[in-house]
Design a protein that fits this description.
about 200 residues; about 20% helix; elongated; five-stranded antiparallel β-sheet
Length: about 200
């Protein structure tokens, strides 16, 4: 009996673990949707990182198993996770000197599904348009199983000041380096204040 219980322990442990998120794979878009390219970006290509070199981070949620994962891709690329394809046409981010800040991406979402019980399993485009990080309600991927949203668009702008987070990391790193090498701090050490000298006491008359 004990041997049977020991044999079942690995199976019980495996069942208690949460399912791992499937990996996003680079894929081709189905032929019927391959020609339907989204419009090009309207932003001046001379401002910031060129479009082809930007990297967008999109969130993908499967509502059936509650598994969410990040997908990173460049404009023109497509990623497939299970029976959903996410296609990126463009991503944009406002310069740091403009307010309010906004990050957006033009994406297409295709799902392989049956529209009815007797229908064939086919690809259907469920969304095509801009998604915005700070204003997600402007455009929403409406689907009972999948949700897609924008998390970031990695790009740089000429002359942009360093962020406070970058400055903090740089300061911390330089301080750690000085401590590791025994190098003295650039700030002068505080000079201790000398104690007052007591006045001499005269001889009694």
């Amino acid at each position: 009996m004990k041997l049977r219980l020991l044999a079942l322990l690995p199976l019980l442990a495996a069942c208690s673990q949460e399912p791992a998120a499937p990996q996003a794979q680079e894929t081709e878009v189905p032929e019927e949707y391959a020609a339907a390219m989204p419009p090009p970006s309207k932003v001046d290509p001379g401002v910031g990182t060129p479009l082809a070199e930007r990297v967008a981070t999109l969130g993908l949620l499967n509502k059936r198993n509650n598994i969410a994962q990040d997908i990173q891709m460049k404009p023109g690329e497509s990623r497939r996770v299970g029976n959903v394809i996410v296609r990126l046409a463009s991503c944009e981010r406002t310069p740091p000197w403009e307010n309010p800040p906004e990050t957006g991406a033009f994406v297409q979402v295709l799902v392989q599904e049956r529209l009815s019980a007797g229908a064939r399993l086919e690809w259907h485009r469920i969304f095509s348009g801009w998604l915005f990080k700070n204003n997600p309600s402007l455009n929403v991927v409406e689907h009972p199983i999948y949700d897609v949203w924008v998390k970031d668009c990695a790009m740089d702008f000429p002359g942009a000041p360093a962020s406070s987070a970058s400055e903090s990391r740089s300061s911390t790193a330089s301080g750690s380096a000085r401590a590791a090498t025994g190098e003295e701090s650039a700030e002068p050490a505080a000079t201790p204040t000398p104690a007052p000298t007591p006045e001499p006491v005269g001889n009694p008359a």
